[in-house]
Records
---
Amino acid sequence: MLSKLTTLQIHLVGFFTSLIVLGLLFLLFVKPKQEQLQKVQAETKDIQTNQHGTQEDVTKHNADLKKAQNDQAKVKAEWQLASAEYMPNIVWGTDVLQTYQNVIVNLPRQWGTFVTSWYDVQRNQGIARVPGTEFPIPSFPTDPNAAVASVRTITFPQGAPWNVTVEAKSFDALMAHLRRFNREMKHHGMPVIDNVSLSGQSPNLIGRYTLALYVIPPTPPPGADPRLGGGAAAGAGAGGFGGGRMGMPGYRGGPGMGPMMGRGAMGPMGPMGPGGPMPGAGAPPPAASSPDPGDK
Amino acid sequence: MQPINLLPPYIYDKQKKTALVAIWGAIAAVLLIGCVAWGLNLSSKVSQAQSEKDQAQSYADQWSKADSAITQANQAVADERQKLTFITNAKKWNDTWPEIFEMMRDWTSPQILLRAMSLDPAQHRTISLNGFAEDERKIIQWWMLLRNNPKLEAPNFSLPPHDYAPANAQANTGGFQGGGFGGRPGMMADLGMMGVPGMPGGRAGMMGAMGPMGPGGFAGRGGFGRPAGFGGTSGNVGQTEIEGRRGIEFTATAMLREPFAGGIPLPTWPPSGGGAAGVGAAGGYRGMMGGMPGMPGGMPGMGPMMGRGAMGPMGPMGPGGPPPGAAPSAAIGGGRRGEE
């Protein structure tokens, strides 16, 4: 057979056979491997680029983690310090009614007397409350469930801050008094003063400002007790109940409305209601004092 | 003698063809081996790339794990961080008040008697002053001084107009330049703030000499809101007499160059994210309440309700309610704005 083929034919056969062998081998062995290699390399690059799959990124991120952990410890420690300095240690009970009776009902009186005495002890430092400057605090809702829901954070007074007018014997005494809020008003919430103004002259220099105390209790109060009728409904946002209250003159409209809107967290706003007493209670608010003298 | 091959060429054809086939066979074999070797090489590269990928994936997992740990760590203290920020801001806010008042004291000329000083309650940016000076020259001198205060900008004084009046009219105005304090140096030098040595009734304190000042005194003028108010300053400008000494009462404003307390909003807890919007909403209610006597009871509660429970800062607006039903002086809760 070989003798029948010419040299040219042998060359052609050899050439094409080699070509076919080469092509087949390329298609069967090389190309898939090449594609697989490219795919793996692309995936690797993607991981490295988009998923931070490099040692450098991991090292850097581990450093970030360490920093975050340090930061976490630092923030916790700082908050503990700040909390210990400014926040009261209110111990709630585990039972709603117990908490209401033993703790919550006493808060307005405790805070009201504290603030009053805090001012009064400054008499020998040249600061005196002018007559009419009082620190009334409206009651918390009388519904224990609503009351408990409203004390997750507490603002004294609830609603509008106190309008305070003090008489100072000197400018320096008044400035020292203003600085005393940060340094000496401890364990009763963070005081925030605003709209400070001065007028008059020594020794009857008048300082006016607003004051509010923001209390962040260290632990949350107990959750609502579903066995208590009205409270649970109001806390859950049953609208009808709150609405009814609002309409009643003399009743604290605000507190009722907070829960009415359907959020427990609105509790703190409830105390705004003290506005309510005004129309209903009929007790005219004394001049220049606070939002709800009637509750005092 | 040259050898001559007399055999015909085709005699070697078979031999040549065999060699040719062998050559092509060898070529094909080389190609085969080459391709296999290439394929094996690629396989090894693939396995190497795969191991790199596994390594990268491992790093990515480690990164992801660290990332979750970071997020977890941040979330674990997010609450505390927020509370801490509130405390820090509140302390800063409280401390800024005396800083500003003391700065103003330090920059007040001893020849100026300040009677009221306040910041605008909305922006906490504009300082309003009400004071008294022996003559206009002293006020201008102080104005020039305040102009150079790096912490203030745009100090502005309301001064009395200088129109021409006939002689008999001048007599009515009093000719204060010839009388009054007579240019006493150190007019208020011994005051804590801007003392007044030699001035009758001068006592240590911010504005010592003003005590006896019946006409211009705080109480006599109907309260602080008026002299230090943020509107109508020109009404308080002009000649006046204090303790028998003639002088000029003036009002002034100056803007703080730096925002109050670094520009932080009024600290409240829970934080009021939508503070600005909330205030707007409450403002609306306040206006409404003005026109609705009898409503105040409910309305204060509604302010926060409309915006957000957390809207602590809204509280102050609530008292706006009382004004309609009560005497203006009882409207304090609503803010000093009501008084002004």
Note: The longest helix of chain A spans residues 7-50.
---
Amino acid sequence: MREWRERVGSRSFILFSILGPLTVLTVLYMLFAYGGKTATKWNVLITDPAGLFEDKIMAKMDSNIRYSFADNYIEIEEFANGNRFQNFDAMVEINEKVLSNKSGFVFYRQIPSKNLEKRVQYQIERRLEEILVKRFTDLSLVDFKKIKQPLNLSFRNVYDPHDQAQDKRAWVGLFFGLVIFIFIALFAMGLMRSISREKSNRIVEVLLGSVRPIQLMFGKILGIGMAALLQFSIWLVAITIGLTLMRNTLFPDYLSAHLNNRIQLVEEVQNPHQFDKQFTDFEYNEFVDLVFERVQFGPMITAFLLCLLGGYLFYSSLFAAVGASVGSESDGQQFVIPLILLLCFGVYAGYFALANPQAPLTTWCYYLPITSPAVVLVKLAQGFNPGEMYSLLLVGLISLVSSILMLWISGRIYKNGILQFGHRLKLRHFFKWTKNV
Amino acid sequence: MLEISKLTKSYGHQFALKDVSFSLKEGEIFGLLGPNGAGKSTLIRIVNQIIEQNSGWIKYNNDLFKREHLKNIGYLPEERGLYRGMTVEEHGIFLGRLRGMSVKESKEALKYYLERFEIGEWRKKRIEELSKGMAQKIQFIFTVLHQPKLIILDEPFSGFDPLNVELIKKEIQSLKAQGRTILLSTHNMTSVEEICDRAVLLHKGEILLEGEVSELRNEYKTGHYVVRFTGNMIGFVNALWSGFQIIDTREFGNNRFEADLALVGDSSIDTLMSVLIGHVKVEAIYEKLPGMQEVFIQAIETAQKAVENEK
């Protein structure tokens, strides 16, 4: 409790609680306002081997989307890499089954804005309705719209048609991983400093007259960990409030009401003016889209907390061991650098996992306790099959066991090293103090 | 009250303690003496369960010593510190709670001791605002705050000026009067002579001497006598005959002197008195007892010589 109070009452804690969320919100605002504007004009190729669309799509030309038609089937790879298709931003795959299963695919080179996505969705759907009415019913188009079903159009990256990389969301995972490592670095370093200070000012011997060394160490880890958790909660609340305010004032979600009800959307945009207003008033930004639409904050924050807990316990016990082993307060710097490098490697592993989701090294880093906090979050953000849940449980188990093991080893080093003074810390001290001396 | 039996502790091949046995009686002040590196701090840490012995055992009131007995101990380590950012009161409550006291009990006990030491106004001061001596006093208070039955003080006088040394001595004696048992480790031999009932002398992890302080001093007495007189030093020397040997002399001014004499042959105190009468004015004659400092040095030197002779 003393450790928790000292940390929470410190000026740096209060400053970090205010400046942290403020910085994140400022960066997000800059990204929302100025960053990530996607192309507003799209060159779309519709492959229609059955000739369903008859090379027609909208009576009213859309100034932002230009459609071309191909009457043959084009392989995804051919579209992705073929020279003659490089001018096209996306390919819409229409086959004869679309009339019955109401689903199709859009393969894009760069992720489209929600704005463009909705336009394509809307325009293809309208054309399909016309075809359905003409072919199968005597109904008027207006009557048909009352009973029709929406088209399910899946947007896929042409270079990743099976939707494996999920780049943007993975970056969010990496951001969360980075936050974990920043928290670990800050609080575990604080823990180490606190232990070495207690050691050098000799209060520790007074305390050890009342509590066991392992209790003292664990109490400190727990106290500082609780302070970290409180700090994170403050960040979470502040950022949530900030994002909500931004969503309601600076970056409102014009489409949200319609996303839930496509029929309503269709009816409302019958009027071309209304349609234009719907789609052109608001320039969508991919970061806004990413933060407000694509990231599943619930599971991500739960995973974040678990990874923070596992990572903090593992790393803090390492830092505690160094803090307890130093001969003087200025000693031990040479052992802090490798620990910082380990933390940096953890962050790099997250980036590596983002860039190489299927690489064997990514799999290793996924299970390795020093890197798993970042890699797990990146992988989670990329998307997880329910069938892969066992691996997530395995990571949790490895993290738990390794944290307990590390706490046990550090506890021994702490117990044997905390009352040793005046030496110059060497690697052999750690091995020596792991044994009972 | 505390029984230590065959306690052995080694670090690698180096013995810090070797078969150390002694016991403390309730209500006594027991001196734990020895040169640096003799094993005193190791012994104290083992009693406080900070480190573990290799063999041997400790009993507290006839029970094998357990962690729960620690709440009956007040420990003031030699190397001591405090949290500099806390106030005296916050620190007292923190340590009191660690030793099983409630916040209220800690506050009341702290108030009592601060007033006893006439430093009640320090209650809200931060530790970093206190001088070294002030902090030492606070540390002493924190040690006895929870009314422990056994108080272990490792060099309690270090860092104090003579006035405060006297204050702490009086407080230790007052604690003894309240029935507390005190294990006092110190290099301040005057204090040992003044306040310790019994003592043990450790050397290289082994017990060299053990017993009542007065007995130890008697054991090491040299048979020398001290004569304090007023008069003329030449007259004093002339008055003595071959039955007395002057070992040392000290002059205090105004023709006052002190001389250490050894009796030779059949000479006695009576003959000494008779030869001096008429030559000098004798103020006092008494047998010289060695101080604990001399006992300490002599015992260590004898032990070292014995080791050298063995080699």
Note: The longest strand of chain B covers residues 14-24.
